[in-house]
Amino acid sequence: MATRWKKAAPPLLAGLLGTMGVLHFVAPKPFARIIPKGLPAPDALVAISGAAELACAALVAVPRTRRVGALASAALFVGVYPANVQMALDARRSSDSRYKAIAYGRLPFQAPLIAWALGVAKNAR
Q1: Bigger pLDDT: 8 or 107?
Q2: Cα gap 101→29, rounded to integer Å
Q3: Engineered SS bond to 69: which of 16, 60, 88, 116, CB 3.0-4.6 Å?
Q4: What stretches of 1-125 show up as alpha helix (H) in DSSP?
Q5: By residue range, what is the domain housing residue 106?
Q6: What would the pLDDT profile of 57-109 be if each residue is shown by its tens digit?
Q7: 60 contacts: CB under 8 Å, gap ≥ 6
């Protein structure tokens, strides 16, 4: 089982990053809404983070660049965490329980994503 996961983890991580990167360009508004309030140019930051996710996906997908891509992915997951915090803060004022659940659920989900990326980096050859 562990060997199967080691083989499946990189393409799954690349797929997740690629999907989210594309979504940043196809549907940027939800991402722009959660950019922390003090940061400038939310639309530009959404595009930059989407491009970073696409770059990380490409790096993780290629065995020769997998380690650097996975480490960059872990750093990216740390870097976007403030947006998750902003989403949770904004959700406090919402009456939509589904939105609140998603907003609060994203906070602890970031740690396993970081661990996943670090595990891919560790297992890269």
Answers
A1: 107
A2: 19
A3: 60
A4: 2-26, 29-33, 42-61, 66-79, 81-91, 97-123
A5: 2-123
A6: 999 999 999 999 999 999 999 999 999 999 999 999 999 999 999 999 999 99
A7: 10, 13, 14, 17, 66, 69, 70, 73, 120
